[in-house]
Design brief:
Blueprint lengths: L2 H16 L7 H5 L8 H19 L3 H10 L4 H4 L4 H4 L7 H8 L5 H16 L3 H23 L6 H9 L4 H10 L9 H4 L1
Length: about 190
């Protein structure tokens, strides 16, 4: 492939990632949320949460943010399959979807993105553990925000994701989140 073809393939991947800004998180529809967050919104806050966790746990914040940023990028092709849907569907592994997504990208880009996704899916480092907890905590916090908006069915997501947290920092932040409103942070600036 020529440099121009690799550039075009890389831009194609970047444009595909833009679809994450439009793709809604399907599970929240099951909870009755009329206009749920997008996959990109989820991934952004997951990366921020992951960076914070990494600092608390002594892991590499940049590495965790990278893992979190790419953890759901495959959903441009397979969608956000809810847990109940996984009972009936067999989706390709995220590593395989990523391989197809970056097939025409610059070789260094393809190898780099593939390595990040492979690490997130199969790694066992502290960074991977923190990234997985960040994904769960983001879901829990989003659920708490939906509860405040009157979506009572979000309680199931809050409780089930809270129960899956593993790191001490994630558990401590989850406990704090359950005792704080989503806009309480504003009080700091109103003093």
């Amino acid at each position: 492939m020529s440099d121009a073809q690799h550039a075009r393939g890389t831009v194609g991947y970047l444009m595909e990632m833009g679809a994450l800004k439009r793709g809604k998180r399907f599970s929240w529809w099951i909870a009755g949320v009329k206009d749920p967050e997008t996959i990109a919104e989820h991934s952004f806050r997951t990366a921020v949460i992951g960076s914070v966790f990494a600092m608390m746990e002594g892991a590499d914040p940049g590495r965790v943010a990278l893992l979190c940023t790419f953890h759901d990028t495959q959903e441009t092709r397979v969608g956000d399959i809810p847990w109940i849907g996984r009972r009936y569907l067999t989706a390709a592994k995220n590593e395989d979807v990523t391989r197809d997504q970056v097939a025409d990208a610059h070789p260094k880009v393809a190898a780099g993105i593939q390595a990040v996704v492979d690490e997130y899916e199969t790694g066992d480092s502290i960074e991977v553990l923190v990234a997985h907890d960040a994904d769960k905590l983001e879901c829990m916090i989003q659920g708490l925000e939906y509860l405040e908006q009157g979506y009572r069915n979000a309680r199931e997501w809050v409780d089930s994701t809270r129960a899956k947290l593993k790191t001490p920092s994630a558990i401590a932040l989850a406990d704090a989140a359950q005792n704080m409103s989503s806009v309480e942070w504003q009080r700091t600036y109103l003093r």
